């Protein structure tokens, strides 16, 4: 009897390990890039907390079927209205968008635990922001995060190709854009509340800044309030969805192999168990 209980515990443990492996494999894009909260705080007796929870929940739900949406949770007190938006990167699949927004929202509990009225998170695959000050449709070209790779000398040819690739980002009217040439890749993303000319204006500024601040670095990431531009030379640092889906398929392969191995182990345990019962009954 004790042996059976022991065996059952073991099987449950295996199943638990397996499910955690497969859960991990399902979220490409859920990698944190930056985040922050406003210093403005709401008081503990206000209805802001509940309004905020509603806003976050409705964004998580919406992300299962739309790559962008905004929410406004109304309140009789104008200071307690919550505005929010999320934007998934244009090249990720809807299930990944939903997983990313859900992960981003869950990070707010440690990022902004202190009754902050506003919060923002950028993950690899999505951006989520909320505040009681309406920011929807408003341009925001402030540098929020920038990162430049190492500079490995200066090459006129490489620089002009890189600049051409970045300029190519301005040739599309989309929220998500990709441009590449030879060994240089770049991507850009605006939030969906910007109109096409605001998006163009934001990206023009991000390109100017990334060229100025990262000069000839092997990669450059320039995140402004409402848009970003990222480039990489020789895939030193992967800004595009491609490398990520590679990563996630590696993880999936790992999950499948782990699953197969665990299946075999379970089968062996089961056979041993049968054998034991069988021999046990014969022995009587
Ligand atoms: C919260 O409580 C304080 C003090 O009790 C009061 O002055 C304030 O008006 C209250 N705020 C709200 C939103 O009810
Ligand atoms: C946001 O809430 C804070 C705290 O209640 C308040 O001081 C501030 O004025 C509000 N902002 C807006 C734009 O209503
Ligand atoms: C906000 O969302 C509503 C409904 O989804 C949409 O009609 C509106 O255009 C959006 N506003 C912005 C600024 O994106």
UniProtKB/TrEMBL annotation:
InterPro entries: Cell2Cell_Antifungal (IPR051378), GNK2 (IPR002902), GNK2_sf (IPR038408). It is found in: Cell junction, Plasmodesma; Cell membrane. The keyword Acyltransferase does not apply. Residues 1-23 form the signal peptide. It comes from the Eukaryota. Keywords: Cell junction, Cell membrane, Disulfide bond, Host-virus interaction, Membrane, Repeat, Signal, Transmembrane, Transmembrane helix, Transport. One of its GO terms (cellular component) is plasma membrane. Pfam families: Stress-antifung. Residues 30-135, 136-236 form the Gnk2-homologous domain. It is a single-pass type I membrane protein. Gene3D superfamilies: Gnk2 domain, C-X8-C-X2-C motif. The keyword Iron-sulfur does not apply. The chain crosses the membrane at residues 254-274. Belongs to the cysteine-rich repeat secretory protein family. Plasmodesmata-located proteins (PDLD) subfamily. PANTHER family: ANTIFUNGAL PROTEIN GINKBILOBIN-2-LIKE, PLASMODESMATA-LOCATED PROTEIN 7. This is Gnk2-homologous domain-containing protein.
